[in-house]
Design brief:
Blueprint lengths: L3 H22 L7 E5 L5 H17 L3 E5 L2 H10 L6 E5 L2 H7 L12 E9 L2 E6 L7 H10 L5 E4 L5 H13 L4 E4 L3 H10 L4 E5 L4 H5 L3 E6 L26 E7 L4 H15 L2 H10 L2 E2 L4 H21 L7
Parallel strand pairs: 1-2, 1-3, 6-7
Antiparallel strand pairs: 3-10, 4-10, 4-11, 5-8, 5-9
Length: 320
């Protein structure tokens, strides 16, 4: 028969182990987290910084943003140690850029573990104020009258701006010149000053310039009007069947421990759902999503199928 002293000792040990269990499981994070995101001035960077501020405050560790072009940031993330200390925030450029290259440095499915869809955003067809068109129909007519003379911005191969423009060009039957930019803020400046004609961009950074008369917003790329821009028609109302949805997503390298992914999803979703973050997202022109990792995985796989079809149907040339 166990003695009373033995029983009390075992109870004490059991209590101590119970108290220690959370501490044993909370070994992540113990150092700063790095997030790769596209250049300053764009929605990807805005989203990454919003997450970084809240996450740093909540977990008591620094969260550093490193700005790199989509493919370079994705490649660095794929090659990072899968311990949760390196993350990637980006759009569908993660997989579309790989689909548009003859040889991608990473596999968009095998090399990444999904964490969450942070937010969605209406992509808007913006043109500079000097372009003599006030509607999608008028812009198409102008482009057909001047084949190859109008141009459009891409900020990354396979990014939302690239695919939205390629789909539009193909479905509208027009020929435009492609102008690549590495820095979104420079692209915005060149659009405002009239150096470039067309930019399919997140609405947040540019909408104020429409009110000032420097830009024209011709349409939104979603199939239905955006709740954030209820007065703006869809591109599809002129080009039937046109649709291009956009999201900001968070990924970690493949083989990151499931417990770490669960922790990151929980903490990032908590940041996104805070009143401060929701207010900031609306200011940016984004809509809160804060999905599960499984929902992001489903989105990624379905979008890969859709984009692969677009590349084939539009005969978009692959890059080396």
């Amino acid at each position: 028969m166990p003695t009373a002293r033995f029983t009390h000792s075992m109870a004490f040990v059991s209590l101590m182990l119970t108290m220690m269990a959370p501490a044993i499981g909370q070994q992540f994070p113990t150092k700063p987290i790095r997030i790769f995101a596209s250049g300053p001035g764009g929605g990807t960077d805005d989203t990454a910084r919003l997450i970084a501020r809240g996450l740093s405050k909540n977990i008591g560790q620094g969260v550093v943003i490193e700005n790199r072009q989509c493919v370079l940031g994705a490649d660095a993330t794929a090659k990072a140690t899968p311990d949760g200390y390196t993350l990637f925030v980006g759009t569908s450029c993660l997989w579309t850029s790989a689909l548009l290259r003859r040889a991608s440095p990473y596999d968009p499915v095998k090399d990444f573990t999904p964490i969450t869809v942070a937010a969605s955003f209406p992509t808007v067809m913006f043109i500079n104020g000097q372009v003599p068109a006030n509607s999608v129909k008028e812009f198409i007519a102008l482009a057909k009258a001047k084949p190859g003379e109008l141009n459009y911005v891409i900020t990354s191969v396979g990014g939302s701006a690239h695919l939205a423009a390629e789909l539009f060009r193909n479905m509208a039957g027009i020929n435009m010149a492609q102008i690549p930019y590495k820095d979104v803020s420079v692209a915005n400046t060149d659009l405002l000053t009239g150096r470039v004609d067309l930019f399919f961009s997140a609405s947040g950074p540019l909408t104020a310039h429409v009110k000032a008369g420097k830009l024209k917003a011709l349409g939104v790329t979603s199939a239905k009007p955006s709740a954030l821009l209820p007065d703006l028609p869809t591109v599809a109302s002129t080009v039937p069947g046109y649709e291009m949805d956009s999201n900001y997503c968070v990924f970690a390298p493949a083989k990151t421990p499931a417990a770490t992914i669960s922790f990151l999803n929980r903490e990032i979703v908590k940041v996104l759902k805070s009143p401060e973050s929701q207010q900031q997202l609306l200011k940016y022109g984004f809509e809160l999503v804060a999905s599960t990792s499984e929902e992001l995985d489903t989105l990624r796989k379905s979008d890969i199928t859709r984009v692969a079809k677009l590349i084939k149907d539009a005969a978009i040339p692959l890059e080396d």
